[in-house]
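As a warm-up, study this chain.
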Amino acid sequence: MSPTDGPLQTRAEALIADLGAHMAGQITVLTTTLHEHMATRIAPLQGDEQLLRLLEASIESNIESLVHLLRYDIPVAESHAPAAAREYARRLAQRGIGVAALIRAYRLGQELVTSWAFAQLDAMEDDTAVTLLAGRLFSELTFRFIDAVSEQVVEEYETERARRQAQRNTMRVAMVDELVAGRPVDVSAAEQALGHRLRQHHVAAVVWAEADATDANPVANLEHAVDVLTKALGVTQTPLFLPRERTLGWAWIPVGRGDGTADLGVTVLPAGVRVALGRAASGAEGFRTSHVEAQRAVRLAAAAGTHASTITAYGEADVRTAALLAQDLESTRHLVARTLGGLALDSDGAARLRETLRAFLAHRGSFLATGEHLHLHKNTVKYRIDKAVEEIGHPLEDDRLELEMALVAAAQLGPVVLQS
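Now compare it with the structure written out below.
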């Protein structure tokens, strides 16, 4: 600072104090002007009279705090967000209004107050050098004030949002447990607690991370997997997702009146995430039964271990059959060994013959249709079927049901029921 800056600084600071005194007499006018300006420019507030009144109280209390800083040279570091401003932030969080609406109010307020202050300084002082320095001092002070106060109210907002979210999650978990247990619930109350419509078709999903997954935020990864499934099913509505443990989540994907079927074979989930799906079902009872089916698919995937597909869908007939067979693995191993004979080996050659035999049975014994399905020449299919019959040791017509069950078990459970 040069020697001539001293008197200029003193005059500018005195002008700032005079501005504070003038502002003290204009609080009501300023509050009304700012309130009208913000009410028309912050869309989420429009029509909510309670929030608008609280916004007005927040504006007034913040202007009063600024007046004290200007008049009495109080350090900005000692500023605290007024009670009305904190309550306004809490109410926004309670209503689910984004934090952007809170921050925007402070930006608009700073813009208008700064413009008003510069006009007053010009009217109060003829010396341009003094008004310029006073304007700079005012801008610096209001910036630090808004920065400090907005940080405090945003923290208040986030704290309330987290508290409300935890409370809502507790209510949602309790309601889901009631529905899954099959207890009678008021559907309207349940929908309000869940934030999810029950009176539609749902596909339940259980998502989990593999034991060796190393994600820093596994819950976010699970939720992302549900979003991927939702898009794969052609659904535009938001699914209901509930974390149950750090590496386990439950979800319900709304499919309207659809059956929730889609080709999920090409769906790419986040690395290390597995999914089990129930069938689409409607209403509160469908909410439960689809989840029960998803849990059966989970048990099948658990029994199959590393052989399980990334997505195990109970809607597939083979999955439903294998889920029953997985309940008694010892008996299923005996069934596979007794029925398949040499095809019960855990080898590439045996797997190739089993695949061909399953397709042959599914296509009603047609060599041509089986070849078209597997992209093989019909003579190759005939050779493989003859070889499969030789390995089995009896005609295909003998114990046909057990043969098909054994083939399903081998396909779905793999090494768990095959012989090394």
